[in-house]
Amino acid sequence: MITAFHSVGLPDVGILDLIPRVAAAGYRGIELNAELLPWAKPHVTPATDAATRSAIRAACAAHGLAITAVGAHIGEMVDADPAVRADAIAFVNGCTDLAADLGTGFVHILSGPQAAGARSGESWRWFADAVAATVEHARARGVEIGIEAIAGHLFCRVDDYHALRRDLPGVPFRINFDPSHLEVQGEDPGRVPAELGDLIANVHLKDGSGRFPAFAFPPLGEGNIDFPRLAALLREAGYDGAMSVEYEAQVYGFERSDDAILAEGKAFCDRLGV
Questions:
Q1: Which are the contacts of 214, defined by CB distance < 8 A and separation ≥ 6?
Q2: How confident is the model at residue 259 (pLDDT cuts 50, 70, 90)?
Q3: What CA–CA distance (Å, rounded) separates 203 from 146?
Q4: Which residue ranges does the record assign to the Xylose isomerase-like TIM barrel domain (predicted)?
Q5: How confident is the model at residue 55 (pLDDT cuts 50, 70, 90)?
Q6: pLDDT tens, position by position, 70-116
Q7: Which of 68, 146, 199, 206 might form a disulfide with 4, Cβ 3.0–4.6 angstroms?
Q8: What does pTM read for this prediction?
Q9: Cα–Cα distance between 187 and 152 in angstroms, integer?
């Protein structure tokens, strides 16, 4: 496994400034955020120009950082409007093209919340169709698509991975494993490496406490997730990819300096033996 830092943790630092800081903190990889959040602008998007793409790739190479993933989260994959769903698929495909340009082979997505008034079966089919379409686009570019189960979204539980695998035979989607969203729903995150270890392509290190919708993502080690157990299960499953520190605790009132976020995340990885 390798330690990585998800750029969403320091959204106010420009990406070309963040890359050397991540490397100096001892990480071996960086994950790039393409999602627009209420508290964070993306570091990259499909609109990122060719010169910036080249500069990001060169800076990572110069500092010995692998680009481990692009987070192409967009919450309209199951919108009731087919034109909005089509735009969401186009966004993901644009992030896939970006990932190929940057030399990384993994992009992860989410479903978004079920639209008001939509039937669950209909919404599930919309998402399954979107997964099939984005995986097909990605395969032609040597990129894999992973799905992250998100609390409060249509696709949110461990069993959803099993169901989608049954519904999409021959569609090689992967898993972006974020245990925090499972923890705050009262699910056992350990089921993912135990039952679906062959599908995991990227892991987020983010803690969780409480129960959705009354929950928090506190700093690593201050929530309820048993990370040593998860690390052991991942090793048993043969996982050797990125363990990516995803700091969003500032949203829940846990303020840290930029340097502390980087240093504490790396120290946590070290304690896990990553």
A1: none
A2: very high
A3: 11
A4: 21-264
A5: very high
A6: 999 999 999 999 999 999 999 999 999 999 999 999 999 999 999 99
A7: 68
A8: 0.97
A9: 13
Count other C-beta atoms under 10 Å from residue 14's C-beta: 9
Q: According to the model, what pLDDT value does residue 126 have?
A: 98
205-239 per-residue burial string, b: 16 or more CB within 10 A, e: under 16: bbbbbeeeeebbbbbbeebebebeebbebbeebeb
Check which CATH number belongs to the domain holding 237 and give it.
3.20.20.150
Tokens found for residue 167: 């519904």
Q: Which two tokens stand for residue 73?
A: 């989260």
DSSP-H helix ranges across 13-119: 15-24, 50-62, 82-102
- In the chain, the amino acid numbered 272 is L
Q: Number of folded domains in the chain?
A: 1
Long-range pairs for 164-169: beta carbons < 8 A, 24 or more residues apart? 164/128, 164/131, 165/199, 167/124, 167/128, 168/128, 168/131, 168/132
Q: What is the DSSP letter of 153?
A: S
Q: Which residues contact 259 (CB under 8 A, 6 or more apart)?
A: none
Q: Which residue is listed with tokens 């080690």?
A: 221
